[in-house]
Each structure stands twice: as structure tokens, then as C-alpha cells.
Amino acid sequence: MLQTIRRFVIDNYLFGEEGQLGDEDSFMETGIIDSTGILELVRFLETTYGIKVTDEELIPDNLDSVSKIVSFILAKQSDSQQTPHDCSSRLPEETRP
Predict the structure, then answer these.
(1) How many angstroms separate the CA atoms of 46 and 72, rounded?
(2) Can you give the residue ranges of every domain in the chain?
């Protein structure tokens, strides 16, 4: 996951200049990604990892470095595995919709 995200950032924002990106480097502080670039990054993450990033989650703590993105995605995936997606199968048959 880390390498996939690194490769996306390097290819799309650093034009292949791999040596310019550390896993902890702040995208905003270093000017690697601007606010428009973050939206493109979010689309990539949602498509690649099957997650949905809400407006409330569009914060630097989640998306401002490769390492922060990896932690954010792992947390999102963990949360989605713990949340039942179809509760109707757990209801008694007579109360199912």
C-alpha cells in the first residue's frame, strides 16, 4: 500500500523525481500537492482501496503525507470490516423488510 501511494504521488505530482519524497514529508508544507491535487488523490484512494472519504476527513491529519494516508486507509478499512453492511439478515424473519 505504501509503495502504491508513493508511486502515485511521484508519478502525478513530482514527475518521476522519486528522491524528493519521504514518507513523512508534508504535501502541503513542501508544496508537493495543492488543494486541487488533494481531490485527485482522494479519487485515486477511493477507487484503489474501495473507501469513501467524507468532507470531514479531508484534513491534514489524514492526507498530508504518505504515512498519514496509509494509517488513514488502514483505519477506514478496519472500521468498514467492523460495521455490518446488511443488518436485515440478522433480524427475525417476520421483521425483515
Answers:
(1) 12
(2) 2-79
